[in-house]
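hiii so um. not sure if this is the right channel but i have a protein structure encoded as tokens and i wanna go backwards to a sequence. like what aa goes where. can anyone help
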């Protein structure tokens, strides 16, 4: 495919490439995304559950939603595409990854420079006193042992600010990037959706379906992230 050849050339030419990944990066690992047809969780719109309101007013639903998402990670692991990104970092072809994913797969695959923009589903804290606690306590539906507050995963809920440290790091990396490679995201969640517009460098997107932002990219390649990254890797 001519576009893949162009992208491979851009990656080799760029002295600073930053990847921005979303849920589509992990579907080939068996983790459903949010907005694809197959991505809805039990026919519930996650945007109505992954919220501060649900945490405060509908905790039972909130807890069962996240317990199911955490349970869904069991038996799933990073795929070849995650490993390729980690290898590119080692080989000097990728500076860092800014990810909306909360599954930790980039780090599990060996990537070191990862900005988790939406937090992590692998750790849990009390929503009142902020004390960290065991994942199993959350899965069992327990409350905080110190203050009896509600336990929650360390993810960013709709209606919450993004953690500033990874956001600022991602912003700086993207601003100074020569190439931003967006992978597997519908680019509908703000402020992350603005990030590809904040670079002076080239911008390319690899996504299964068209997104509402495709016209802003210099290169748009539709396909599965893992497969496309494997094809690209043969040319790098
Ligand atoms: P999204 O569901 O809105 O969009 C995912 C996009 O990925 C879709 O456009 C879809 O066509 C595409 N896609 C699906 N499979 C693909 C594949 N194999 N290769 C390439 N593209 C593929 O997800 P989003 O844009 O990341 O935003 C959703 C929010 O959901 C984020 O806040 C994120 O934190 C959260 N989320 C995270 C995970 C995870 O950590 N794995 C899973 C679901 C949702």
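sure thing!! here u go:
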């Amino acid at each position: 495919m001519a576009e893949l050849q162009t992208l491979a050339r851009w990656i080799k030419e760029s002295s600073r490439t930053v990847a921005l990944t979303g849920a589509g990066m992990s579907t080939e690992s068996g983790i459903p995304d949010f907005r694809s047809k197959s991505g809805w969780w039990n026919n519930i719109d996650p945007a109505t559950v992954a919220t501060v309101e649900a945490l405060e007013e509908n905790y039972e639903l909130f807890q069962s939603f996240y317990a199911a998402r955490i349970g869904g990670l069991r038996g799933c692991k990073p795929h070849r595409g995650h490993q390729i990104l980690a290898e590119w970092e080692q080989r000097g072809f990728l500076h860092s990854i800014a990810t909306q994913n909360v599954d930790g797969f980039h780090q599990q695959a060996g990537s070191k420079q990862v900005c988790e923009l939406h937090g992590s589903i692998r750790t849990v804290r009390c929503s009142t006193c902020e004390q960290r606690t065991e994942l199993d306590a959350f899965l069992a539906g327990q409350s905080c042992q110190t203050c009896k507050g509600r336990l929650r995963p360390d993810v960013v809920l709709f209606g919450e600010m993004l953690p500033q440290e990874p956001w600022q790091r991602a912003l700086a990396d993207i601003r100074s990037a020569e190439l931003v490679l967006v992978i597997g995201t519908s680019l509908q969640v703000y402020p992350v959706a603005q990030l590809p517009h904040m670079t002076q460098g080239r911008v390319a997107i690899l996504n299964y379906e068209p997104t509402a932002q495709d016209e802003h990219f210099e290169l748009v390649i539709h396909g599965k992230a893992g497969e496309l990254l494997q094809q690209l890797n043969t040319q790098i």
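oh and The first strand starts at residue 17 and ends at 21.
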